[in-house]
Design goal:
This protein is an alpha/beta fold. The protein is 38% helix and 13% strand. It has a five-stranded parallel β-sheet with strand order 7-6-5-8-9. A four-stranded parallel β-sheet has the order 2-1-3-4, sandwiched between helices. The longest helix is centred in the last third of the chain and has 20 residues, at 298-317. The structure holds phosphoric acid mono(formamide)ester.
Length: 325
């Protein structure tokens, strides 16, 4: 699918990825190309790439997709993983993030962390001498965003000029990372949310500045129909993120008008796809008829976590020689 050219210096080698804005637009586009190349290639073809390398997975919160897709990605690339659940390490509680990062850097080749607050993750990554990948923090979910733009590109060829409507809590980590990745690749992002759950003006201004070189933009709408009208992609997430359960009742009441129903999907383009990072709550943020219907892309999207993260591991841990540029 892609011409294989001799690799120039790989600009992502040895780096960490904590949030999408750390990537240049060209680096993001390259990761998507790499993911499409690796997805199309026979699995056995790249088993030597990470032979002898170990990826640690430190997860303070539950996970199905992120954990399993990273574990399978490492198997496909010839490496191995080591999983530790929250109580066994508790970054910043049992020992400082800096100490934990320096110790782990002596044992493993890269570290995926799923945690609560973003700040200790930054401290951890700054002290680590191996790449650190954010497997979800309160601030960002960059691995999800990589899979999301891969899925959109597969369906539409490119993101430039598309309208991506995100409905629900427009301030959460998934919405933020998705919006960053989409505007960087030239898409219009419409956030449909009540005032209590819309991105701040500062966030919208930052998204518009980030998207400006590629023609991407971001706007918020209180009216869900205006947000969705003419959209190519409709995206939603659970109304209450992990760790925010105390706000569940309030969120349910305020976000109900933003539920993705067949009626709301009717305002989008006839070719529009529905996306959700999963896990989903059918009958809450999305109707069963939408998530289980013909326009749903959610399981392709979930599969793409594997391919996007394979690309990320190759980019961070190898010189990417022989890979598409
Ligand atoms: N979408 C996502 O991050 O799924 P998990 O929480 O199961 O990893």
């Amino acid at each position: 699918m892609y011409a294989v050219a001799p690799a120039p210096t790989n600009p992502l080698a040895g780096r960490s990825l904590l949030s999408v804005e750390e990537l240049a637009a060209g680096e993001l586009a390259w990761l998507v190309r790499l993911a499409r190349y690796l997805k199309a290639a026979p699995v056995h073809e790249h088993r030597a790439l990470l032979r002898g390398r170990t990826l640690a997975l430190l997860f303070e919160k539950p996970s199905l997709r992120t954990r399993v897709s990273f574990e399978v990605a490492m198997q496909h690339l010839g490496g191995q993983t080591l999983f530790a659940a929250g109580g066994e390490f508790l970054i910043g509680t049992r020992e400082s993030p800096e100490d934990a990062a320096q110790v782990l850097s002596r044992y493993v080749d890269a570290i995926v962390v799923r945690t609560h607050a973003h700040e200790p993750l930054i401290q951890f990554a700054n002290a680590a001498s191996v790449p650190v990948i954010n497997g979800l923090s309160a601030y960002a979910h960059p691995c999800q965003a990589l899979a999301d733009v891969l899925t959109i590109e597969e369906r539409f060829g490119a993101l430039g000029g598309l309208t991506i409507a995100y409905l629900g809590d427009g301030r959460n980590n998934v919405a933020y990372s998705l919006a960053q990745a989409c505007v960087m690749l030239g898409a219009r992002v419409h956030v449909g949310a009540p005032n209590s759950h819309r991105p701040s003006e500062a966030t919208l201004a930052a998204l518009n500045a980030l998207g400006e070189p590629a023609g991407g933009s971001a706007r918020a709408f209180a009216d869900p129909v205006r947000a969705v009208r003419g959209a190519d992609v409709i995206y939603t997430d659970v109304w209450t993120s992990m760790g925010e359960e105390r706000y569940r009742e309030r969120n349910d009441a305020m976000l109900r008008p933003y539920a993705v129903t067949p009626e709301l999907v009717g305002y989008a383009q006839p070719h529009a796809i529905f996306m959700h990072c999963l896990p989903a709550h059918r009958g809450e943020e999305v109707s069963p008829g939408v998530i289980d219907g013909a326009q749903s892309a959610v399981f392709d999207q979930a599969e793409n976590r594997l391919h996007a993260q394979k690309a990320l591991l190759v980019a961070l841990l190898t010189d990417a020689k022989g890979m598409p540029q």
